[in-house]
Amino acid sequence: MIGAARHTQVRGVTMTQRVGWAGMGLALAAMAGLTLPLAAQSLIERDAARQAERAARVAAGDKAYKRKQWNVAREHYQTGCDEDGYGEACFKVARMEERGEGTQRSMALAFTYYRLGCTMQYGPSCDRAGYLASGNDGIERNDEQAFEMFYFGCSFKSAESCSNFGFMHDFGRGTAQDRVKARELYLKACDMGSPNGCTNQGMMLIEGLGGPADPAQGRAFLKRACDAGHKPGCEKLAMASGKTPAKPATSAVAAAPAAKPALSQADYRMGLEAFDRDQFPVAYRNLRPFADQGDTTAEYAVGFMHAYGQGANRDYLDAARFLVRAARKGDKRAEELLGIIGPNISQAQFVYMIDAEGPDMSSLSAFDYEVEVYCQFRGPNCATWRKRYQQAEDANNRRAFSEQLARAWRQSAPDARFGNDPRRGGETFAACIRRQVRTRGATAGSTLVDYDCF
Predict the structure, then answer these.
(1) CB contact at 8 A, 106 and 97
(2) Are residues 444 and 388 in the same domain?
(3) Helix, strand, coil percent values for the chain (each to nearest 5)
(4) Where in the sequence is the domain holding 277, given as residue range(s)?
(5) Contacts from 336-343 at CB under 8 Å and sequence distance 24+?
(6) Per the domain annotation, does 14 fall within a domain?
């Protein structure tokens, strides 16, 4: 098969290693019933052995990581990154730097290793590098760099990178605004499994951005996002469908409390084991009910998954809700994570405030500032608030123009201080104007229109 590729499963992540010309030759020779020279076969075998060695090194690091043996895990990952040139290993070095595991937290080093992992064609590393380059977690905003990282991440089959790459085109970040391209990328991200891509594609269809409007199809995309557990997708689907949360019925008879779901220790243990193995969707599904009922360990795990968008949609307010509850009970890991994501929580609170209460409209400058900050924080209704600001600015300009016309009219009326001095008999219009300018001085010449000589 032309362009044959070999897939290796490592910790649930599929990595495609391209065989190249030697592999293609081997495949074609096998199809033709030919035997390749031993040297060519040896090349393929060495390549396979090298891939297996790299995967084994990362697996050894993962094993140590689960046991919280940070130094051992770091050594395996570091070797895999520096010596093997393995993108996933670089990604995991960056993640340890970002979380401060076994070392003092350094976002600058984390950013460096995320970018390095991207150059080694590991899509999730590109996505995280692009996110940081967008001005998050203390990294200076560089739209051109973020655009580049998301481009490569999307090329390396990262669904979230494709969604973020669409966002860059949607709002003209690092490139000219191109909503047709944004719509294509959101669709691609959604088809690759990104709930965020599905939500964005749905809103583009509903609002008719980047192409014809199709509200029915837009709602279908929002439903896909909601079914995948994407909270913003569910909220926008409810808004697009004209639905509001049902209010509890008022009745003289008190309703019986809803029965709590039966929770088993087997589910709890399964959730914790899945969390330790980075099997986050399973962990979230099993641990969320325990977190809702106040289990401290489950609260930390669920907060962690919301904070990093692992197994659940990234939602810093939900993350804070669970982590604060755990931290108040003395969970040190929750306290540390709150310190790490504190700036993100502040941004999320600002976005929530704008969506719930609206921006400061006491002046156009205040309105403009809060909308721009909201958009910089990637608020989901950026386009809507910008449109409302533009409407307010247009209305203000119309009002100012009307007031200016009124002032001009008042200035053009005869000046009562000098009295009306009409044209005298036999006096030409030019002579009248000349006489009035000489007698009234600069005042007459500065009025918009002087009617005395008409």
Answers:
(1) yes
(2) no
(3) 70, 5, 30
(4) 266-335
(5) 336/100, 337/99, 337/300, 337/303, 337/304, 337/307, 340/98, 340/99, 340/100, 340/105, 340/137, 341/307, 341/316, 343/136, 343/137, 343/138
(6) no
Place of tokens 């001095």: 421
Task: Tell me how far apart the alpha carbons of residues 408 and 382 are, in angstroms, rounded to a whole number.
Answer: 39
First to last CA, the chain: 93
Q: What is the pLDDT of residue 259?
A: 40
pLDDT of residue 358: 81
How far, in whole angstroms, is CA 25 from its chain's centroid? 43
Q: In terms of domains, do 329 and 377 share one?
A: no
30 C-beta neighbours (distance < 10 Å), count: 11
Q: How far apart are the C-alpha atoms of 112 and 123, rounded to whole Å?
A: 15
How confident is the model at residue 186, as a pLDDT? 93
pLDDT of residue 304: 93
Q: Is residue 402 part of a domain?
A: yes
d(CA 352, CA 155): 33
Length of the chain: 454
- How far is 122 from 96, CA to CA, in rounded Å? 17
Q: What is the rounded average pLDDT of the residues 188-214?
A: 90
Looking at the structure, tell me whether residues 396 and 444 fall in a common domain.
Answer: no
- Closest-CA residue to 75 (of 87, 50, 88, 57): 57
Whether 403 and 432 map to the same domain: the answer is no
Residue 155 makes CB contacts below 8 A (sequence gap 6+) with none
The residue to which tokens 């033709």 are assigned: 32
| Nearest alpha-carbon partner for 122 in 153, 151, 83 | 153
Q: Is 185 helix (H, G, I), strand (E, B) or coil?
A: helix
* Closest by Cα among 284, 237, 246, 243 to 380: 237
Q: Flag whether pLDDT at 119 surpasses 80.
A: yes
Do 382 and 434 share a domain, yes or no? no
Q: Does the residue 364 lie in any domain?
A: yes
27, part of any domain: no
Q: Residues 256-269: what's their mean pLDDT?
A: 58
Query: Would you state the structure tokens that stand for residue 320, as one six-digit string?
Result: 């804070």
Instruction: Say how far apart CA 259 and CA 418 lie, in whole Å.
Output: 88
416 has pLDDT over 60: no
* Tally of structural domains, the chain: 3
Q: What is the pLDDT of residues 283-319, one digit of tens each?
A: 898 899 989 988 888 999 999 999 988 888 888 989 9
The pLDDT of residue 272 is 86
Q: Are 292 and 319 in contact (CB under 8 A)?
A: no
425 and 393 share a domain?
Answer: no
